[in-house]
Each structure stands twice: as structure tokens, then as C-alpha cells.
Write a structure and sequence with these properties.
With about 130 residues, this protein is mainly alpha-helical. It has one domain. It is built from 7 helices and no strands. The chain is globular, with a radius of gyration of 15 Å.
């Protein structure tokens, strides 16, 4: 697949974003843990969800890097498609967080910024997945 330098940088930046969030999530920190703690309180389910989301983000970032390097793995397209769905669900969860926390109207620009980042992640996954881009 021919890529422009801009699309390469875009996908690389999203891959790095996912890897960083994944590492933080696996370590029970970062945005994932904060959002889950606010929605579900402290406890095992919160820890489990933060770690699970962290693993998914970490592997998704690695999958995007593999796609950038044009390493062909048979399951890569299917995995990226699944992560696309999971990330769309995560956007809904984060919107619930913003609504519950009361920040949706008081911190509108931050919410808009986070929503834009999520759309960039979805767009990069869409670009990387041959199944979704057809």
C-alpha cells in the first residue's frame, strides 16, 4: 500500500499514543483507570477493565506499527477491526464518564479535545484495516 508521509506520521503517532496508554493501563494508571474508577468505583472490576483496556490498546498500537512496517499477519485485519469496535464502545464509556462527572458542559473544550483524539484513533484504525476501508 502506498502511503504519504503525512499518513505515515498520523498512523505512527496514533500507534505511539495507543502503546503509551496501553502501558499506563496495564500498570493500572492513566486515563483508563480514572474513567473506570469514576464510573464503577474502586475495586476488582475497575482494575480488570483498566488492565484489559490497556492490553487491547498496547496490542493495537503494536498492530499499527506492524502495518506501518508492512508486516503481513493473517489475523491483523481482523484484530484491527475488533479493536475498532472496542474503541468505539470505549468512546461511549468515556462520554458517560464526562456526563457523570459533570464536566461535559463545564469543561467542553477538554471533552472536545478528547473526542477528537478518539476520532483520530478510529481513523487510523480504519486506514490500517483493509476490511474497514473497503
Amino acid at each position: 500500500m502506498n502511503r504519504t508521509f503525512g499518513s505515515f506520521l498520523w498512523q505512527l503517532s496514533v500507534a505511539l499514543y495507543l502503546v503509551a496508554n496501553g502501558v499506563l493501563g496495564v500498570n493500572k494508571g492513566g486515563d483508563f483507570a480514572i474513567i473506570y474508577r469514576t464510573l464503577f468505583g474502586r475495586g476488582d472490576i475497575t482494575t480488570f477493565l483498566a488492565i484489559l483496556t490497556g492490553i487491547i490498546a498496547l496490542v493495537a498500537g503494536i498492530a499499527l506499527v506492524l502495518d506501518l512496517l508492512q508486516i503481513k499477519l493473517s489475523f491483523l485485519d481482523l484484530f484491527i477491526f475488533i479493536v475498532f469496535i472496542v474503541w468505539a464502545v470505549y468512546i461511549v464509556v468515556e462520554c458517560l464518564y464526562w456526563l457523570k462527572d459533570g464536566k461535559f458542559s463545564s469543561d467542553f473544550w477538554h471533552v472536545l479535545q478528547m473526542f477528537a483524539v478518539h476520532l483520530m484513533v478510529l481513523g487510523s484504525l480504519l486506514t490500517a484495516s483493509k476490511k474497514l476501508s473497503r
